[in-house]
Specification:
The protein is α+β, with helices and mostly antiparallel strands. The chain contains 29 helices and 22 strands. The strands form seven sheets. Strands 2, 3, 4, 5, 7, 8, 11 and 13 form an eight-stranded antiparallel β-sheet that branches. The chain is flat, with a radius of gyration of 32 Å.
Length: 865
Amino acid sequence: MHPRLPSAILCAFVASFAARAAELPATSARFIEQHCAGCHDAVERKGDLDLTALALNPGDPKNFARWLKVHDRVESGEMPPKKKPRPAADEVRTFLAPLAQSLVSAEQARAGDEGRATRRRLNRYEYENALRDLLHAPWLQVKDALPEDGEAHRFNKVGEALDVSHVQMARYLGVADYALRQVMAKSPEQPAAATIRYYAREARSFTGPMKFSVFNTSPERATFPVLGFEAQTEVRAGKAPITVGAADPITRDLEGVGVVAGNYEPLEPKFTNFKAPAAGRYRLRFQTHTVWVGPTVQTDPKKPDRWWIPDLDKVARGRRSEPITVYSETPPRQLRWLGTFDAKIEPEVAELDVWLLAGETIRVDAARLFRSRPGAGRWQNPLAERDGSPGVVFRWMDAEGPITERWPTSGHALLFGDLPLKKAEKAGAPAEIISANPEADAARLLRSFLDRAYRRPVAAAEVQRFLPVIEHARQTGATFADAMIAGYTAVLCSPEFVSIDEKPGRLDDHALATRLAFFLGNSAPDAELRGLADKGGLRRGDALRAQTERLLNDPRARRFTDAFLDYWLDLRRIVATSPDEALYNDYYLDDLLAESAVFETQAFFAELLRGDLPARNLIASDFAMLNEKLATHYGLPPVEGVAIRKVALPRDSMRGGLLTQAAVLKVTANGTTTSPVLRGVWIMERILGETPTPPPAGVPAVEPDIRGAATIRDQLAKHRTQEMCASCHTRIDPAGFALENFDVMGGFRTHYRAMGVEGKAPAPGLGFGGQKFAFHYALPVDASGELPDGRTFADVRELKRLLLTDERAIARNLVKQLVVYATGAPVRFVDRPAVEKILDRAAPGGFGVRSLIHAIVQSELFLNK
């Protein structure tokens, strides 16, 4: 019993509530009795649903969810099922109208008290970007030091999933302190801008593998000296110096080190003689060229002719360009992708503008070349031909930097203004900050920092809140700089910085600027947006539209596209699985393919956004974003080079759109097998915006048979004979079947691969690691299917055409995904009319993706909490 209510009053309250909860309009009750009770009464309870006993109490979340499902199934015509008599249209409207009003009223009551979105903290992406922008330090890498974010409604932007624990706060404190110290000036004088050349011949990781060892007894794993386009036999044999050195600078610049294989232990070429002296911006220039290395000639007729083994003393000009991937490296083998370029036939210099952390070195990978992986037999270069193998020669790397536009840097100036610097007595320590009036300087600097860090005006009292932190640190022996860092750390861990807190109702200018910035830049408002909010000008005239357009054109908009796709399409899971090393060894170890796949999807969405292309392109487009690797992988006409670019597709190509992109097909597979169920669910949720019913408890998942005795289609047909499974799989499986023509890495197939069957000879071919194929081709793929409405398709091309008969539905799902990402709240039942208004605004242009974003920003969903 409630301790504060007399029992009679409490009983009357409960009775009254129960009576109200049970009320259903008479017309609704009749509809249920006539069209639903046959399957959903106390006896049948199909789907564990008894509508004859289900009260209407939408204030209860579980009850709301049940009635919402009833509403949507009836509205879509899915219920009653096709085999049952259909209710008249006016009967359906009469049933749905009062139900919809009850659901709307419940959500409006909830939103009136709290708003659509709940208070939340910044996720890891946002916190890292906010620190980078605030401290003018684009090179900061702190995201992975924070705990993994929770997810709700598919994104890491929703408050209910972004908890704040003591572990979280401890990590924030550590990350904030680290970031602040990274931008402190290390010396009073600006470091001299220097460009230093680092020669491959003077790096042990390049020259060491020239000599065979217990770890390397094969020419493919060896490096070899080249001068111009000629092999240096004497140098390789150790009979001549490894380099002429500074005594002959002209010859020195022509010396190079060649490889015929990509990076794989023990062959890991990197410019170890370079280590970034400080974090910051660097300009790297590489001189490379390609070569053709002749084969080993077997003169003994009794021995096998192993023409695929290179003779490293036979070197000539290359026959084609080769893609090079550049990584930064921190021991032990922590790699970070920096960029790519093409090594050309003739020596050329390629330039990359990069951000490096202090101490990072540079690793280069001839990424198309095979990786010599031990296995059942000796590896064989899959790129080798009877007359030789392709190779790449690295000559030198120029490193210019760190490149600074001012000294001290903008980040240091934010922390310490124009206070003088003194060289630290301890080597490697930051410069000492000299303050003649610590108390006054602390208050002045803290106020300036708060004005920049907070996303709204700062009250005087808030400065006083953090001054005691600084004063306490000084009193306990901290230097002035360390005391200020303690105060700044407290600011960067305060709710005002870490959290997004909006008041119910219309967003004020600062809240609106914050929402817009975290939507399209995944970071705090920049100076222009903040200045407009300070003047109250964000809502005037076309200011909001102009700012939206500016942010979409800003290079930092890539943060939006990358983060949005990481969660909407699960691109962040691209490395969660690897292609099976036996079943798919043609993909195993191929980093260039996996990296290119992600870049394709990111570039594709960015192209839709840039050109305001219609949302239907998500399903089917007449172009793809490709490089040579992807074009080859997809069996498309040749494309030259490693750069991703827009390429027109052949008429009636299976490619085009998201569904047949390698990244999507990889994240919906497990590296060994594909499943129409998993891919079908993915399409329903991510592309069509439908939520499938979770599988019943105790029903095991259907696992594909890698022995090839039965296809997954056969197994699912047997699975669907169970009545409890059939209704859902009829909706889920068809789209997944259409993608069965694509393997775990998105390659096209007509037959499944299988292993472990006695008497079956392996397919001919070599994997990326040089091992022979161990799989055989088994049963044929059947990519046909039938949609729940009876329409059939033969393959993914026909499925795409069927999906595009309702382009508005495709655009509607994209809008819903974007609204969750932009506002931190799901699209609820009450929000559906607002979504339709957004679609109406973008409909004249075919639901262009850029137009949809503009319409979202102008919508009531975006402008209100």
